[in-house]
Amino acid sequence: MIARQSAVTVLTLAFLVQCFYCEDPKLTSMKRLTNASNLFARSLYSHVVAKEPVVIYSPSTAHTCLSMVYLGSRESTADQMKRSLKLHNVAGPHATYKDLSISLNSLQSDQVLMTSALWINSKYRVKPEYKTTVGRQYFAEVKNFSFSSVGGPDLLINAWARNKTRGKISSILPQAGISQQASLILISALFFNFTWTSPFDKDQTSKMDFYRANGTPVQVDMMRQVSNLDIKISAVANADVIKLPLTNPRLALYLVLPRSVSGLPELETSVNTNSADFEAVFHGFQNTRVDLTLPRFSVSTVISLKNALSNMGMPNAFSEFANFSAISESPLTLLDVVQKTVFEVQESGTVAASVSLPVSGYSPPLETEPPLLFKADHPFMFFLRDDTTNLIILQGRLSDPTVRSVDLA
User: Fold this and answer.
1) Family per UniProt (predicted)?
2) 343 phi and psi, to 5 degrees?
3) What residue ranges define each of the domains in the chain, with the CATH number in brackets?
4) What confidence tens digit (pLDDT) does each residue in 206-263 have?
């Protein structure tokens, strides 16, 4: 009898120890979904970067919005979207997006504004069950637009974007406006307004040369600080990586700096085609003293993703072959996926930062060894990442800090 009790006790302890290290099943499912989103991000990046000196966009927001549309797609349209969104290995993506949306909603504040909506021409009737499911699973809006309304859909949609981003984005549509043939359009608006955990001292900002990819210098404002940061040298495709933590502990900005002034294209190819190099960006850091120099910049980008998404394998959604019969009985075609991103980086974080951290004067410490040097004075990649779910919220490249606006719509 005693022997049996001992055996049961041992088995119970083993079970408890094993489960003590188990990850929350919801978080595990969310990470599978964010892995799909990140795979989508890497593919999308290679299609939208082109030759622009500055590209900033949110692959996660695009993935979320397109998953909403995928929910209402059928037959070959659904098959193409599933493959393009990398959802073939994700069970129950729409239910998981509900958990992810709840998790990401905790980031919503004056510091992080992310919003999206599916706009449908008012002459088409949306199925109530689709509208209900999108609201329940994605906490998103399904809105109507009409060409007969005062100011047309341009006025209505721009007003929506302005309201949702609290005035940070006043106009989201391309200057050409919306085609009269539009039946379905997807809009996402983003604004990031964060502060660094370790702010830069404005007195240390000065004019320095930033070397563009062709080697020509341009004078820009460069911020500088010496502090303890997570860094690794020549760790990813002959590039250095530094992690800049934000006051929201879930978020961090990762800068990936090629050792060569002209090394960005090779780095981008490596990170976007090699899973090991991509994952290596976010792991294996050494926390040490770093002398960091980073350009101060502000940029606004508008990107049309239609061609990129078609080339990634989902052309039917944008053609007469589109099947969105779970959204409406009427034939719908996705006109475009338009995204506008405003990204501003300065000493405390961003220009419109609502929380200011005290900034002390810069005084280099007395050290027996000099700090590691991370001088971002030539083109680099960057990622804004939610370290809890591994989701890439923002991705981009900076090849010229003097560029203030990029229109790829």
Assistant:
1) Belongs to the serpin family.
2) -135, 120
3) 26-194+299-344 (3.30.497.10), 201-295+370-407 (2.30.39.10)
4) 999 999 988 999 999 999 999 999 999 987 888 999 999 988 888 899 999 999 999 9
Q: How does pLDDT run across 140-193, given as a tens digit for each residue?
A: 888 888 877 777 778 888 888 888 777 777 777 666 667 777 787 777 766 666
Neighbours of 192 (CB within 10 A): 25
Instruction: Kindly tell me the sign of the dihedral angle through the C-alpha atoms of 308, 312, 316, 322.
Output: negative
Name which of 174, 184, 191, 177 is nearest 338 in CA terms: 174
